[in-house]
Amino acid sequence: MRRQSPQLSLNCQGIKHDHAKELAMIDAILSGHPRIKELVEQDLLAGLSCPEIGAPGMTGDQVFRALIIKQMNGFSYSELAFHLADSITYRTFCGYGAFDEVPSRSTLAKNIKRVRQETIEEVNRVLVDHARTEGIERGRKVRVDSTVVESHIHAPSDSWLLWDGVRVLTRLMEQLREAGVEFSSSDLRKRAKRRHWAAHRAAGQAERKRAYRDLLKVTHRTVHYTRQALEALREQADLSDAFDRAWEIAEELRHFVELVERVIDQTERRVLRDQKVPAQEKVVSLFEPHTDVIVKDRRDTLYGHKIFLTAGASGLITDCVIEEGNPADANLTIPMLERQRQLYGRPPRQASLDGGFEV
User: Residue 10 domain-assigned?
Assistant: First the structure.
């Protein structure tokens, strides 16, 4: 029995594991279709006046491979950064050597988020064409179905949204002040938090409305301070570069203040005036504002997006459409089959659909 381990070898050997074999097969497909990395690189270079200047960033191939690892495992960006640094298999798959520095969480997030949904759709078409060429999926038989993918948000309430608004606007105003902009404001986060919980725990309608009125007053004041801060930036800005960071923060402030004003409006209508606010007009998250309100089977209310999927006989997902709002399945029957005709140059011979779809 040895009392200590010998010095570790510097040679990194590949591992014999099903997941490693799976990544090797994906690597072979990606290497055989350089068009995929070219599509991603176009998104990364969009808006850059001089991409040759500055530190070398992630390539389109590395970004897409990191995106694959993230989606396959359900990693957060922090988890993705850790596993990419820790795993020799993931390093190799993404094109990083054993001693290369891997991207940070923020770098991974920044680059992956620049990949547009249109690019992902085009990549899927490349992969569908590969499956057809290899005889894996010919598109003769398809199944069309719909489901809901929920956004990563908590169940929304007006009080929670108002408190979120006070929090994020105050935080950004602090950053604006640190960037050199001078303006006066008050931090109302503690008061907003107390009123949020008071509204959440109110025993009766009258008590609930009192809490909401004060929470709305606090939110209105915070929005007013935000508008003053933006005006102060415009007045103090000059031709120097001193306020470059401030202008970036101002863009975020303008984005969030418009959402918070919409939340104020829907809260006043729903809570104070007892009006019904249509689902398509509601804001259910400040951080995922694209989220739709979807009522499923007239029972469950979900927050996310309705998606329509088409799968072939092999199980390959040949098409995916993300719709806005909550359209009826019957409205997407013909468009989904037409998209299959565009993919394969002919309509499928056989299509299987749920009862909600009509032909």
Answer: no
